[in-house]
Specification:
One of its GO terms (biological process) is DNA-templated transcription. This is DNA-directed RNA polymerase, dimerization. Keywords: DNA-directed RNA polymerase, Transcription. Belongs to the archaeal Rpo3/eukaryotic RPB3 RNA polymerase subunit family. There is one protein chain. By secondary structure, the chain is of the alpha+beta class. The protein folds into two domains: about 150 residues, Gyrase A, domain 2; about 150 residues, RNA Polymerase Alpha Subunit, Chain A, domain 2, CATH 2.170.120.12. The protein is built from six helices and 16 strands. Strands 1, 2, 3, 4, 13 and 16 form a six-stranded antiparallel sheet that branches. A hairpin with a 2-residue loop joins strand 14 and strand 15. Helix 3 crosses helix 6. The chain starts with 18 loop residues before the first helix and ends with a helix. The relative contact order is 0.18.
Length: about 375
């Protein structure tokens, strides 16, 4: 940006910043060598000498804050968070990764396995399978709690490749069968146990989970088509898997997202009219086709057609002289947020839960300070 002498600056209305200061406050300048003005100016008296109050006001925040959904399906979601600080966007990201609970397999009881996959590796693979169930319907289970229909889900896996098959068979995640009545494996008992009493298993279900209204019409399933192992002729796997509720900060298997990330909205500005060969050269420079050419009065002129696609690779300003023609910036309070769900819960539900968790954290802080 060219320097302007102080006496040449125009007179400004009261409580307004000059254009260059307003841009430094709201934009990150992506120059050829390095980005500048990356910090957020949050001090309330930063512009007091100009009669501008820089303090955060709740009414202004409510007026400027917006959430615009760009695309959404069962697996991923892209939306814009407008009018917030990077710290809040990052708080949502961290909560989505580590604090939104899900159900995941925690205990694996292997009855028999002749697979080439070691038992501990098989158990680890089972733990990473997304379970399609709402974790809000279950309670957390502590070390002293007994597994029951409210805090545990039991799956059975029995897969055998007959000796005469002559081929290798693949064991998939959808071969896991839900056991709504709980574990079928008996606990080790003493020989003096009363034979007339009901045998005890690894869970204490008082009723079948199928009898609960939440699961009567929606049986619990897992994400299908995930390879667990491959069995040769004569090999067999028989096991029982118990899933409990947890959070990603305990183990990554409880994280509900494959990834959650954000980036500031790119802003691409043509400082000059770029025509003819320069326009064609600019279009070829960009690897993500941000620029396009339009015909105006018989002249070819470059235009910014897809600024949102810009990755700020800075190829368009890499050569000398192009920084005077093209300006690359990022908007500091506009974030493009992407959530990729593992499949356990829809992405819109995950974000809603993250908002609730952040709200609870704020209320806890307020309670402690009051």
């Amino acid at each position: 940006m060219p320097k302007v002498p102080l006496w040449d600056l125009p007179e400004l209305p009261k409580n307004e910043l000059p254009d260059h200061l307003q841009q430094q406050k709201t934009r990150v300048f992506c120059n050829n060598d390095a980005p500048t003005h990356t910090e957020n100016i949050t001090f309330s008296g930063a512009y007091a000498a100009m009669g501008v109050d820089n303090s955060v006001r709740l009414n202004e925040f409510r007026k400027n804050f917006k959430v615009d959904i760009i695309k959404m399906n069962d697996e991923d979601m892209e939306f814009d968070l407008i009018g917030i600080d990077a710290s809040i966007a990052n708080a949502f990201r961290r909560i989505l990764i580590s604090e939104v609970p899900t159900m995941a397999i925690e205990k694996v009881l292997i009855q028999y396995s002749s697979s080439v996959v070691q038992d501990e590796v098989l158990a680890h693979r089972l733990g990473l399978i997304p379970i399609k169930v709402d974790p809000r319907l279950f309670d957390y289970m502590s070390e002293n709690d007994v597994p029951n229909e409210k805090n545990c889900i039991v799956f059975d896996l029995h897969f055998k490749n007959e000796k005469g098959s002559g081929e290798r068979r693949t064991v998939y995640s959808h071969d896991l069968k839900w056991l709504p009545s709980g574990s079928q494996y008996l606990l080790p008992t003493e020989s003096t146990a009363d034979p007339s009493s009901k045998p005890k298993t690894y869970t204490s279900f008082t009723s079948s989970q199928e009898s609960l209204p939440e699961f009567s019409e929606n049986p619990i399933t897992v994400m299908p088509n995930i390879i667990l192992s491959k069995l040769g002729p004569g090999q067999e796997i028989e096991l029982e898997a118990h899933a409990v509720k947890g959070m990603g900060k305990t183990h990554a298997k409880w994280s509900p997202v494959a990834t959650a990330w954000y980036r500031m909205l790119p802003e691409v500005i043509l400082l000059k009219d770029i025509e003819g060969e320069d326009a064609q050269k600019l279009v070829k420079k960009c690897p993500v086709n941000v620029f396009d050419i339009e015909d105006i009065g018989g002249k070819q002129r470059a235009t910014v057609a897809r600024p949102r696609a810009c990755t700020l690779c800075r190829e368009c300003i890499r050569e000398p002289g192009w920084e005077e023609k093209v300006a690359l910036r990022r908007v500091k309070d506009h974030f493009i947020f992407t959530i990729e769900s593992t499949g356990a819960l829809p992405p819109e539900v995950l974000f809603t839960e993250a908002v609730k968790i952040l709200e609870d954290k704020c209320e806890s802080v307020i309670t402690e300070l009051s």
